[in-house]
């Protein structure tokens, strides 16, 4: 191990040796430290990472954890985890050795996040990520126990109440949308319940107007100006959705005005931003309550429930992995059937 000065650049560099997880001896060299102390600190943290000692800082553990999960997650999910660690967790706890992080430290961090006014779902995501990161240390780097377990959780996984429009509210809104592209996109969202990423990933060969079917087999994300296609959210999200005649007509009318397209081209070659401003402008103009683009999915589910569609069919149409997800999300929208049940029982009783 050595920390040396580079007289040409007037900076320090580290040259050290370590044994990797395969048992192989390797050398590591790192340049550009302005102070010798910085070089020594980096060397210590690096060796602790390689040795997996539980007194490494949370910063070091987070790098190891991110490296481990990168090949196991979709890129967009990995980026979300990294963002939360870098911006919501490490600025508060990153410099502490993981074996010195106490439940009181976790509790103080939680209270700080709660005070920022974040949603329950966002708070839950933050907390779950910290739990997972420290569980990684318990499992692989000899941390005795996870302090998060004693600190308790924060936030809730589910929103307290979903927001949606009734069909009357939607009709009032869509009547004001006069741009054919935005109109067709909103119509597709409302009458299929697909996710916005699934809508933007649609290619012409996914739409079968002759048989009234839209095939969902991918989703799309945007990063650094690039369009990134990935598999849908869950295996059950790969599905075929039957569409009503009015949506067949709308899509046909829209596609007729597109020239020179290839079957593998995106039907709606835009980002989510195209709908955000239009939704805000037209909903305010119509005097409607504020909803998100994702809430068109909830509005579709509400429409189907109001029509009396079986929950299993709704679950399959939305691409939920389990019907319980559908029931848990929309249970409060189902009307009480107690009176109907009693009436049917009365009919079979011989008086």
The proportion of residues forming helix, as a percent range, comes to 40-55%
Radius of gyration: 27 Å
H/E topology pattern = EEEHHHHHHHHHEEEEEHHHHHH
Q: Class by helix and strand content? A: alpha+beta
The number of distinct helices, counting runs of at least 4 residues, comes to 15
Shape verdict: globular
Please tell me the CATH architecture of the largest domain by its name. Answer: Orthogonal Bundle
What are the low-pLDDT stretches, counting only 5+ consecutive residues below 50?
Answer: none
Give a count of the beta strands, DSSP E runs of length 2 or more.
Answer: 8
Strand content: 5-15%
Q: What is the CATH level 1 assignment of the largest domain? A: Mainly Alpha
- How is the main sheet built? 3 strands, antiparallel
**CATH-defined topology of the largest domain:** hpI Integrase, Chain A
The domain tally reads 3
- Please name the fourth-level CATH homologous superfamily of the largest domain: Intergrase catalytic core
Mean pLDDT: 88
Major sheet: arrangement of strands: 1-2-3
Would you write up a description of this structure?
With 351 residues, this protein is an alpha+beta fold. It has 3 domains: 3-50, no CATH class; 58-149, Tyrosine recombinase, N-terminal domain (DNA polymerase, domain 1, Orthogonal Bundle), CATH 1.10.150; 167-333, Intergrase catalytic core (hpI Integrase, Chain A, Orthogonal Bundle), CATH 1.10.443. The protein is built from 15 helices and 8 strands. A 3-stranded antiparallel β-sheet has the order 1-2-3, with helices on one face. Strands 4-5-8 form a 3-stranded antiparallel β-sheet, with no helix packed on it. Helix 2 packs antiparallel against helix 3 (75-93), helix 3 packs across helix 4 and helix 8 crosses helix 12 (295-306). The longest helix has 21 residues, at 120-140. The mean pLDDT is 88. Residues 56-138 form the Core-binding (CB) domain. Belongs to the 'phage' integrase family.
